[in-house]
Design a protein that fits this description.
CATH class of the largest domain: Alpha Beta
Number of helices: 9
Radius of gyration: 19 Å
Strand order of the largest sheet: 3-2-4-1-5
Structural class: alpha/beta
CATH architecture of the largest domain: 2-Layer Sandwich
CATH topology of the largest domain: Methyltransferase, Cobalt-precorrin-4 Transmethylase, Domain 2
Largest sheet: 5 strands, parallel
Bound molecules: S-adenosyl-L-homocysteine
Amino acid sequence: MKLPTFPAGEVWLVGAGPGDAGLLTLHAVNALGQADVVVYDALIGEDVLGYARDGAELVFLGKRGGQPSPKQSEITTRLISYAHDGKRVLRLKGGDPFMFGRGAEEVADLVAADIPFRVIPGITAGIGGLAYAGVAVTSRDVNSSVIFLTGHDQRGHSPDTVDWTATAKAGMIVMYMAMRNMAEIADKLIAGGRPSDDPVCVVANATTPDMQVLDTTLQRAAADIAACGICAPAIVSIGRGNLLRETLNWCGA
Ligand code: SAH
């Protein structure tokens, strides 16, 4: 199969998957092998960066050690300026660039600046990361719908724009960035009709050697998270589909 050549002056927005470098796509590896500069996010591991070609410039632009994240405008200004310098610019993002990754905003800025681009999707943590814990986000007899949502808005609260009663009806609820607001979210879902004993699975650092899994219930989730010290980055899945872990848990986490 002939994979595409990376033209100078283009920006490719690439999903790196949730951590395990084996989950990179052929397109991602092909792009990493050609890029002149790789601008990467906080959740990108060294194994993944190891696929960058020798001599590529690796630029970290993410949130580090409690520092505020760089502004979106700062990131796109850098991408555009590298492209104007005639570089092959690879913007590497954890998981999938369009799943809570602000990929759409970055692309919009590239379009506005007339920079040619390509998007290479990645495996998102909310599907692939859960699969490493034996959680199938859909399964015919147990859950026939799944909803993906972020657990915090720009102010850091649980998002107001979510219809919690409608969300409570989904077969499976898969949440990103939800750890800090778990108590508030659980209250809203229970008020919206979700059973308080609904199974919850928290998967931290999914697919990496540091992966940790906590099985709990909606009512107990926030307290159990605090008690066992499991921390972000983590995916929280809510629903009876989590019970399938008993049979599907192939990595024993
Ligand atoms: N674009 C990414 C999500 C970015 S938002 C994707 O598609 O996966 C960042 C959040 O993603 C984290 O706070 C966490 O909720 C989740 N996440 C990303 N990588 C993860 C991992 N390896 N394990 C668990 N959660 C992860």
